[in-house]
Amino acid sequence: MKLSRKIISLTAAALALCMTLASCSSQREDTGVAYEKDMKISAAADLEGKAVAVQLRSAADDYVVSHQLTVYPKRYSDMNKAVQNLKDKKVAVVVADANYAKKLIEGVEGVKIVEESIGSVEYRFLLNKSDAKLAAKMNTKIAALKESEEYQAMIDAVMVKETGYTIEKDSEKELKKNFTFVTEPSFRPFVYEEDGAVKGLYVSVADAVAYNCGGELDIKTVEPVSDIDNVADTVKGAKNSFGVVTYEAAADDEELITTDSFYTSELVMIIRTEEKK
Known about the structure:
With 277 residues, this protein is α/β, with parallel strands linked by helices. Helices cover 35% and strands 30% of the residues.
């Protein structure tokens, strides 16, 4: 009888140890990555305790932090690496703009986009605070553009077909100023380089707004970096220049201001296909 009790006790202890080890192996607390094969990620609430990959200083970065969706944000300059880390189970999910996410996973096996949006984001132009009058004028031109038939034609051409779009211009109109548009061309279809030209929605809208403000648009590209914001720093250094932000970057910077939104988009999650919705 005593031997039977001892065997039962040892068996129970062994089972408890196995359960503990299984629990430890399914969750790496240092990164928040869950490894259960059937782990479900289908809504923003599912991000709690998971390692969430976002682009550094992007709308997704700001959103997951400000909404406290995770304590494990992992920031990337190279989002292709983020997707690869997702496949390698080094992160549990990638959060990105819906338009960008589609381009990011083109031809990539083993990942998919969760169709349900987790939030929205507004795109705005960023200016030096000394250009407040220009920002106000740009706001009126942005509002007029968004109400025009050309705006939807621009969205369809640039974001869907990626054929590019330039508003109709009067060749005799006198353009008295030059406006510099500063951008990092690594965010397709919003802004990218192709055939030696910078293209995308940012460029089409910036060109239209600059023209309607009475000026020509010059494009200046900068390299994306991890420690400073090249776009903001370049904008600070010159009048009549502007870039694009996807969050209130100017909120903590007394030298910068933003225009009204010129485009609103959705944030989505990219997950591994082995994970069930």
